[in-house]
Specification:
heterodimer; A: mainly alpha; ABC transporter involved in vitamin B12 uptake, BtuC; 2 domains; two-stranded antiparallel ribbon; 2 strands; B: alpha/beta; Rossmann fold; 4-stranded antiparallel β-sheet; 22% strand; globular; cell inner membrane (chain A); cell membrane (chain A)
């Protein structure tokens, strides 16, 4: 009567190290299953760089423009990294741009009017961001107002706040040398190299220790070759970028020397590491993915869904404040357009182009940076070509549409492959 | 089966001694005889039921949903809970799981009366429910889903290695051979595999009673077989399993005990070996059985 089977076979038979071929096969299966990850963004960057190199030659590829790209893209990247948290929930934050603008204005005012130390002023800006995120999060999770509407309201209101704060003069100047240095100064060459070296070592060490941990626990581990190849590729990219940024890129060396890794890179890289760590190595990060994937399942598993949502909105708004300060540092002031016009749309576009799903549950912090690179290369390359702003927007819109379609199609594939 | 059916002894089931209008009086005799089989069965091992419900009443406003329901759930056995739509199966299960409280009646766990006010109380007792929609996160892998909301951490960080090891141990312990890798996202699993993950999650926490709500409803033939085999293994490992199902074939195949709800009353809880397929269907649809029991002369 019963269907008792007394099989004692283990669930997974082979437990030795996986071969390189097996790892590659796993990866291919994942992609075919709809988990395309960073591939479209990486392919996009390569294609775009090739196209613009052919069209513009050294005008595009020179070291000066490369550093310029980094500076242009870093603010978008920070906004986008914040938006990843909200998009992971399947929500949206339309107010992030102006939250950044007002956050930067708060920092400027605190220094200008209150004579605050720049560190304290920055903390003030972050607290402002946290407050905005808290209110948005409460309205969305407790009251149940759609995030689209709540953040649209905040978008309008904060635009007004920024207009009032900048006042008749129209700008809040940034004069603090530390804040200006972020976007306008480079690290000394040795520091840039030391930074790159340490990052490579940390990356390799982290990968090795994780491998060791799995091996000790008797879990299937990819062959050591995977770790070696990954570390070498990471080191190669970082060393090439550092070397290029260490080149003299001033047009007139006698007027001013311009070389070294821009300081903002350290900030963006630091945020990338810390936020990725939070999202992938802590229970909170796991809960963010769970809420985005299936909020009801998360609730039944005992996860406080409201708290997770609020924390994500706070994270997004705080990072928006940081992004706002970067924008202000680049233009040396806050004006009524700081964080306005295309900032938010480029930031959302960056996250989506990078591979973060608009449907929630899928995405990484790195996506924000990858997408920001794509968008910045488009804007930078087309502007160098002398294309009008109108065409730049049109192409950017097309790329975003393409990315969103890739997202939708890969999601459908994932759903289809789910019912084998 | 050593028990003698047809031996008329006084049955203590309140629903049978006070037949409600829903249970016509003339059916009482046959139902009685089957209940006797149950109550007179000689003790097999630790035969005290792990979960005992007596005289459970539940109303939603004017609607009397459960009328003096009795239920015994034993460790190492699969107890099927059957009944037509609206018979009160879900209400009974949700009450057991602590989603809402019963209005009246005894709730005994391991022989002791307990108070279960919310799902956490039920979990603390070792009662896990696998709902029909499984409540899995498609975007997370098998390990993440199994530990969802109860992640193991070491100094604040997720302890992936330990979680993966324990997930594998649990799956191996259930002799699950259908999962290639525990790091596969649930989105890419078949319906049967998802059910397996949901069940494995329920037994991961040393639970004592696993309640399965229609585990085979959405599955194909081969996958149904896999899940039923898994259900059987759970019981063989000493867990008490409550199986809610509309599929009589599944029930006859895997259950040790069949409890039949009819319009909110428990009309019978019988050994599967003592009844035929058609008798169970009759109990479900009319609340009574007309033929003698199959095990009567066994």
């Amino acid at each position: 009567m019963s269907a008792t089977e007394t099989t004692t076979e283990p669930a997974v038979a082979p437990r030795g190290p996986q071969s390189l071929g097996a790892v590659f096969e796993d990866y291919r299966a994942r992609i075919r299953g709809g988990d395309v990850g960073a591939l479209p963004a990486l392919a996009g960057v390569i294609v775009l760089v090739l196209v613009f190199t052919v069209l513009s030659g050294t005008q595009f590829t020179n070291a000066f423009n490369f550093a310029n790209l980094v500076l242009q893209g870093s603010a978008y990247a920070v906004f986008a990294m914040g938006l990843v948290f909200v998009l992971l929930l399947g929500e949206i934050d339309l107010s992030a741009g102006y939250t950044g603008g007002v956050g930067a204005a708060v920092v400027g005012k605190l220094i200008l009017d209150q004579n605050l130390n720049w560190v304290l002023a920055l903390i003030g800006g972050l607290l402002f961001g946290a407050l905005v995120g808290l209110v948005i999060g409460l309205l969305v999770s407790k009251l149940g107002v759609p995030s689209f509407v709540v953040t649209l309201a905040f978008f309008l209101a904060l635009q007004g706040v920024l207009l009032l704060m900048t006042g008749a003069g129209g700008t809040i100047p940034y004069r603090d040398s530390h804040l200006l240095a972020i976007m306008n100064k480079n690290m000394p060459l040795w520091l840039g190299w030391a930074f790159a070296g340490l990052t490579v070592i940390a990356y390799a060490a982290l990968g090795f220790s994780r491998r060791l941990q799995r091996q000790r626990a008797g879990l299937p581990t990819p062959t050591i070759l995977v770790w070696v190849l990954k570390s070498i590729a990471f080191a190669a990219v970082l060393i090439a970028a550092t070397a290029y940024l260490s080149k003299e890129r001033s047009r007139n060396v006698f007027l001013a020397s311009l070389k070294g890794v821009p300081i903002v890179i350290v900030i963006v890289a630091g945020l990338l590491v810390v936020l990725t760590f939070l999202l992938t190595r802590t229970a909170w990060g796991r809960h963010v993915y769970a809420v985005g994937g299936n909020a009801e399942a998360a609730r039944r598993a005992g996860i406080n869904v409201a708290r997770v949502k609020i924390s994500c909105f706070m994270m997004c708004s705080m990072l928006a404040s940081v992004g706002g300060v970067l924008l202000a540092s680049r233009t040396n002031s806050v004006n009524p357009q700081t964080g306005g016009s295309d900032v938010l749309l480029f930031a959302v576009g960056s996250a989506v182009i990078g591979g973060t799903s608009l449907f929630g549950g899928r995405g990484r912090v790195l996506d924000g940076i990858l997408g920001a690179v794509v968008i910045t290369v488009i804007v930078n390359g087309m502007t160098l070509q002398g294309q009008s702003q109108g065409r730049v927007y049109m192409i950017t819109g097309l790329v975003l549409l393409l990315a969103a379609s890739v997202d939708a199609v890969s999601r459908r594939r994932a759903a289809a492959s789910g019912r084998v | 089966m050593s028990a003698r059916a047809g031996t008329h002894t006084v049955n203590s089931r309140p629903v049978l001694s006070n037949p409600s209008p829903a249970v016509p009086g003339r059916s009482t005799r046959k139902v009685l005889s089957m209940s006797v089989t149950q109550t007179e069965r000689p003790p097999v091992g630790a035969d005290t039921p792990i979960l005992t419900l007596r005289g459970i009443e539940k109303s939603f406003g004017a609607v009397h949903v459960l009328r003096g329901v009795d239920l015994d759930v034993r460790a190492g056995q699969v107890t099927a809970l059957v009944g037509d739509n609206g018979a009160g199966k879900s209400t009974l299960i949700k009450g057991v799981a602590g989603i809402y409280g019963f209005d009246a009646g005894e709730y005994l766990f391991e022989g002791k009366p307990v108070a279960v006010h919310n799902p956490r109380d039920a979990n603390a007792l070792g009662i896990e429910v696998v709902y029909q929609d499984l409540a899995l996160c498609d975007n997370l892998d098998v390990v993440h889903n199994m530990f969802l909301g109860r992640e193991l951490t070491a100094s604040g960080l997720l302890n992936e290695a330990t979680m993966e090891t324990r997930a594998r141990e649990t799956l191996d312990g259930l002799s699950v051979r259908t999962l290639q890798s525990v790091r596969t996202p649930v989105a890419s699993l078949s319906g049967g595999q998802r059910q397996t993950v949901a069940i494995a999650r329920a037994v991961l926490w040393n639970s004592k009673i696993v309640i399965l709500d229609e585990p085979t409803a959405a599955l194909g033939v081969a996958q149904t077989e896999q899940v039923l085999a898994l259900v059987r293994r759970l019981a063989d490992k000493g867990l008490a399993v409550v199986l809610i199902s509309h599929n009589m074939n599944d029930v006859m195949q895997v259950a040790d005990d069949i409890a039949v709800l009819y319009l909110g009353a428990m009309v019978a809880q019988v050994k599967t070996a003592d009844v035929t397929h058609s008798q169970v269907v009759e109990l479900i649809t009319t609340g009574r059985a007309t033929n003698g029991t199959k095990g009567a002369d066994a």
